[in-house]
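Researcher: Structure prediction, please.
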Amino acid sequence: MRTSFDIDGITRIIEECSRNGVAKFSYGGLELSFLQVDRAPATEPAFVRPELAVAQESQAKSSLVREEVAVKQEQLEQMLLDDPLEYENLLRQRDLE
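Model: Predicted structure follows.
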């Protein structure tokens, strides 16, 4: 039995086969074979060594600390311009270090 397919029908068949993990499909003279590929994102490794995970976490925390320090420094510099008396009071109270 031969059936004629239009491009939209073939496209829908391919999409459904892909979505449902079909390896082979045949119907009315149409035969398709699909390669099985890993669907894991390329940027995410399949296995992460514990040492590497700890190092990455430490690096992320260090980066956050650096960002917080930079923001605090910018705030202090702005306070010195906007309200020098309050800046001096905070220095005396040792809140700035």
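Model: The chain has three helices and two strands.
Researcher: Thanks, that helps.
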